[in-house]
Amino acid sequence: MEGDLERILLSxxxxxxxxxxxxxxxxxxxxxxxxDGITLVTILSGALIFVADLIRHLPFRMKIGLITVSSYRxxxxxxxxxxxxQDLNVQVTGRHVLIVDxxxxxxxxxxxxxxxxxxxxxxxxxxxxxLRKPGKAPPDVQAEFVGFDIxxxxxVGYGLDYNDHYRNLPDxxxxxxxxxxxx
Length: 183
Ligand code: 5GP
Ligand code: MG
Hints:
Blueprint: E1 5-10, H1 12-29, E2 38-44, H2 48-55, E3 63-70, E4 83-86, E5 96-104, H3 108-118, E6 124-132, E7 145-149, E8 155-156, E9 172-175
Parallel strand pairs: 2-3, 2-5, 5-6, 6-7
Antiparallel strand pairs: 1-9, 3-4, 8-9
Helix pairs in contact: 1-2
Residues 43, 46, 71, 101-102, 109 line the site of magnesium ion (MG).
């Protein structure tokens, strides 16, 4: 599986270090907000591994919500627009909501989830992404917490897939060209 990578972009050690730091940044922001209730809304499936590691660095009481969005890549690396596949499974009205996603690319996924959550009238709404491809998402779709800015290449590993494979790679890397289709 590792042989399918052109190169590793972020090692498991780099990821672990940054996830720990992100946890500290988030804990600082939500200090004192616990009594109002905090819900982390995880965008599946890509953020699965990230959220599992992140929450163990968050020292406050929280609930976890799940929402599944398909960005319609399938066997390609091109997004064909985002669509809600499975709706949010918890109530977030009046709660502090932190959306957690794997990567912010064009912003289509995040826009969809933010619009879905906004109608529930949460007390606050913020976003944390592990990766961001800078300059691609419009200014009104941004994340408050960002793990790493990366180059505009298609990456896999640590939850990120290509056609549902490679999520279990511990590192994040760029897939070799012969393993994916662009169209
Ligand atoms: P956006 O909607 O911001 O264009 O893309 C966000 C979603 O598309 C992410 O949640 C992720 O599932 C997928 N995505 C975007 N860029 C990449 C990438 O480089 N690799 C993988 N595996 N998925 C990506
Ligand atoms: Mg995703």
